[in-house]
Amino acid sequence: xxxxxxxxxxxxxxxxxxxxxxxxxxxxxxxxxxxxxxxxxxxxxxxxxxxxxxxxxxxxxxxxxxxxxxxxxxxxxxxxxxxxxxxxxxxxxxxxxxxxxxxxxxxxxxxxxxxxxxxxxxxxxxxxxxxxxxxxxxxxxxxxxxxxxxxxxxxxxxxxxxxxxxxxxxxxxxxxxxxxxxxxxxxxxxxxxxxxxxxxxxxxxxxxxxxxxxxxxxxxxxxxxxxxxxxxxxxxxxxxxxxxxxxxxxxxxxxxxxxxxxxxxxxxxxxxxxxxxxxxxxxxxxxxxxxxxxxxxxxxxxxxxxxxxxxxxxxxxxxxxxxxxxxxxxxxxxxxxxxxxxxxxxxxxxxxxxxxxxxxxxxxxxxxxxxxxxxxxxxxxxxxxxxxxxxxxxxxxxxxxxxxxxxxxxxxxxxxxxxxxxxxxxxxxxxxxxxxxxxxxxxxxxxxxxxxxxxxxxxxxxxxxxxxxxxxxxxxxxxxxxxxxxxxxxxxxxxxxxxxxxxxxxxxxxxxxxxxxxxxxxxxxxxxxxxxxxxxxxxxxxxxxxxxxxxxxxxxx
Length: 557
Prior knowledge:
It comes from Rhynchospora breviuscula. Keywords: Membrane, Transmembrane, Transmembrane helix. This is Transmembrane protein. This protein is α+β, with helices and mostly antiparallel strands. The protein has helices at about 65-70, 75-100, 110-120, 140-170, 180-185, 360-365, 395-425, 425-460, 475-485, 535; strands at about 1-5, 10-15, 20, 25, 35-40, 45, 170-180, 190-200, 205-210, 210-215, 225, 235-240, 240-250, 260-265, 275-285, 295-300, 315, 320-335, 340-350, 355, 370-380, 385-395, 495-505, 510-520. The chain folds into three domains: about 65-170 and about 400-440, no CATH class; about 175-390, no CATH class; about 490-555, no CATH class. The strands form six sheets. Strands 7, 9, 10, 11, 14, 18, 19, 21 and 22 form a nine-stranded mixed sheet that branches. A six-stranded antiparallel sheet has the order 6-16-15-8-13-12, with no helix packed on it. It has a three-stranded antiparallel sheet with strand order 1-3-2, covered by helices on one side. Helix 4 (about 140-170) runs antiparallel to helix 7 (about 395-425).
C-alpha cells in the first residue's frame, strides 16, 4: 500500500483518509510504485524427473536424424502430402513428354530426356509383357523408367513417414503399482524444497515464520507437534512479486503420516497484510544423483469456482487460513538404474478469508484485528503404494525391417500392376520404345562408322573412302610415294600384308620390280600401271616371280 497525498490511482480506493489500497485482484508490485497491477494467469509446469533422452536404438545409433525430422515436420500428414505432390508431379511430367512425337533424328532435348527416362528402368526391366517373354532379356522402356522412379518416390515418402513414427513412438512408458512395505519406503532418500511466494506488496518484515511441524490428523491418536528445526529449515527473501518462504529438507525419508506447516503475515504501519495469490515451486531431488529432479510449479488464486461479477478477482485477508495441499508419490524408475524419486503434485487449494468487493475490503483494512494472511502447507504422503516406471520398446529392429520391406513391396507391386495393364492393353507404348531403340542404334552405328572412316583416311591417306573423290582412282601422289618406297613408312591395316614381288617388262625392254599389297591370302596380285594397258595384256606380261608364283597383271580402267 502507498501513503500519498495525491488522489488514488485507477483501480484503487482510499481508506483511513490518507492511504490508498488496490481493488480486489490488484496489488502494488512494490512500495515505490503507485500503479495497481492485476494478477494474471499463471503457467503450470510439471517435471517427470527423468527425461526421455536418447534411447539405445539401432537406427539412431548410426543416423542422427531424429531431431532433423522433428524440426522439418510436425506430423505424418505433412510427409504423406509432400510424397503425393511429388509423385503426381513426376507422372504429369512423364505424361507430357510421352504425348510428344518422336524426333526421328534423335537429337532433340525431348528425345534425350525420354531416352534417359527409359534408362532409369531398373525395377521392371525384366518384367515387361513382351511377345517373346524371355526372362533373361533386360528390356528398358520409357514406361518402366517412369514407374521405377514413381515407385521409389512412393517408397521414400512412406519410409520417411515410418521413421518419423519410429522416432516419436518407438517406446511407451509403463507404470506398475505395487504395495509398499517399510524397507521399500525407507530406501527413498530425497532432498525436498518448497518455495511459496505470496503475491502482494508485503515483504519478509510482515512474516511471522513457522516454528513447529504437525504430523498426523488433528483429533487422532497419531497427532503430534514437533519443532520444525528437527525436520527442515526455512528462509524468507523478497522477490519482485512478494515475500518467498523456502522450506528445505535434506536427506529426507518418507514418513507415513501427513504434515502441516503454517505461517502468517501481519499488518505493519502503512503496509497492511493483503495478498492476491500464491506462486509455488515444489522440487524433489535424489540425494545422491543431483541431476534427477521432479518438480511442479504454478500459481493459485482460486479454487476453481469463478465469480461472474468480479471475474475471479480476489484479495486474501483475514483469520481463515489458505491451504495448499501437496501430495508426494514414491516412484521408482526401473529404466534409469532403479532411480527412486518423490514426485510432488499440487492437489488442491483451499481458499481462506478473502474479499471480492472493494467496500468490504476497505472495512477490513480499517480494522486492525483482521490484519492477517494465514497460509498452511499440507503435505500428504501416498505411501501405501509405489509406482514403478519403465520404458518398453514398441518397435524392434526385426519389426522395423519387416515394415520397410513391406513398404518396398507395396510400392513396387502398385506400379508393376499399372505397367502390366498399360503394356498389355496399349500396343503403341511398346512400338514407341522399339522406334526409339532403332533411332539410337542408327545414331550409334553412324557415329562409329564416321570414326572408322576418319581413322582409315588418316592412316592410309585419301582413298576411295573419301566421299569427295568420285573417280574411284587413287591420287597420283600416293602412287608415286608407293613406287619410290615411301608407302612402307605408313601403317598397314590389320587385314593387309605385303605380297610377292612381281617383274614386268615395259615398252623400252627394261625390267622393273614391283611390290604388290594383297588384302587377303586368296586374292590375286594386281598391278595398277598407268598408260601400259595393252602391253601388260601381251604375252610378255607373265613373268617368273622370285618365289615361283606367276603374277598376272590386269589393268582396270
